[in-house]
Design a protein that fits this description.
Helix content: over 70%
Distance between the termini: 44 Å
Strand content: under 5%
Order of helices and strands: HHHHHHHHHHHHHHH
Oligomer: single chain
Length: 342
């Protein structure tokens, strides 16, 4: 088991190193093209707007997590308290391991009086829903922007000679989906000793899921769907006003590309916040659309910088008086009784 974990970490580290090498190679090869970049005050205003939109995206993630919480009204778990818990955990995702933000989230929630097991399950469920929604959303949007995806897959000649039908595009997307699922399934089975452990996990997960409202899960999925739309818009906004860029990339293709890159960056073990991996995938998906490689790398690094600033911002926002609330009502009463009757 230990050797399996070591191998996963090693593979994850290898992916991160290769991703950064891919980015740096494209940045350095035509570095002289960056001399043409001129940053205007207006563009700085666009970056500030994108920072605010990233913070809004954090609030939507909080809403998704809060909606999944069962018995939140009876527990007195408010959206503001959930925001404090969630915001304070985000900065930890840049620690190596890609799991420390979840640990910090669970720790903050239990300190507020929430049940440890339930919070851990809700946080895991939200991650699963986010990955599923991102994967489906990415494939769905790329399905309708297949002409652009054909450029990345270097199918330009084939595209000009044979116009893909709706059915043909559907088959291609299904094949891509099957390959991705099969590859990840193979890796998963490779690192597990037996299928019996997996069956137990799935059965336990489904049993736990019965305590949750289907309506809340659907609402949570809808919030995640809107969040992907918002994140795609941030990329589209910054790219279209980025210095030296005359972009041919559509909003639909850019949003789908982001969703796929986000999902793949999240499942790479050991990549802090998907750093490097997401940028490398996006670079590959966006290169064939007339934007020079070094400018595209700088654009992706700029987006990452603004994203990190948003994570730091919500961390400090979590200490503001209107968010730094007391513990849950039941937990506070129990603590008071404990102090009075030691």
């Amino acid at each position: 088991m230990a050797s399996g974990k070591t191998l996963k970490k090693s593979l994850g580290l290898l992916f991160v190193i290769l991703s950064f090498w891919y980015l740096l190679e494209h940045l350095i090869t035509h570095f002289d093209q960056l001399k043409e970049l001129k940053v205007s005050v207006f563009f700085l205003g666009i970056l500030f707007l994108s920072l605010l939109l990233f913070i809004l995206s954090h609030a939507m993630n909080v809403a998704s997590w809060w909606l999944l919480q069962p018995n939140k009204k009876s527990q007195g778990l408010s959206f503001l308290m959930s925001s404090e818990i969630h915001f304070r955990s985000q900065i930890a995702k840049y620690l190596p391991g890609n799991v420390f933000h979840v640990i910090k989230l669970v720790q903050g929630a239990t300190e507020k009086g929430l049940n440890l097991k339930r919070v851990l399950f809700v946080s895991t469920l939200q991650i699963i829903l986010t990955l599923i929604m991102g994967f489906i959303f990415g494939l769905f949007t790329l399905f309708f922007r297949f002409e652009e995806l054909a450029k990345v897959l270097e199918l330009q000649k084939l595209w000009s000679e044979f116009e893909f039908s709706f059915k043909a595009k559907g088959y291609m997307i299904l094949v891509l989906l099957a390959l991705l699922v099969a590859s990840y399934g193979f890796l998963f089975l490779f690192f597990k000793k037996s299928l019996s452990h997996l069956k137990e996990k799935i059965f336990s997960f489904l049993q736990e899921l019965k305590a949750f409202s289907i309506r809340d899960i659907i609402f949570s999925l809808f919030v995640l769907f809107v969040d992907y739309l918002l994140m795609g818009y941030i990329f589209y906004l910054v790219l279209n006003y980025f210095p030296g860029v005359n972009s041919e990339i559509s909003y639909g293709y850019l949003t789908g590309s982001f969703a796929i890159a986000w999902v793949l960056g999240s499942i790479v073990p050991g990549a802090p916040g998907g750093m490097g991996v997401r940028e490398a995938i996006l670079l590959k998906l966006l290169l064939p659309f007339g934007v020079s490689a070094p400018i595209l790398v700088v654009f992706l690094l700029t987006i990452r910088l603004v994203n990190v600033l948003a994570d730091v911002s919500v961390f400090f926002i979590s200490f503001m008086p209107f968010l730094s609330l007391t513990k849950l009502e039941g937990s506070a009463k129990l603590e008071k009784l404990t102090e009075e009757n030691p």
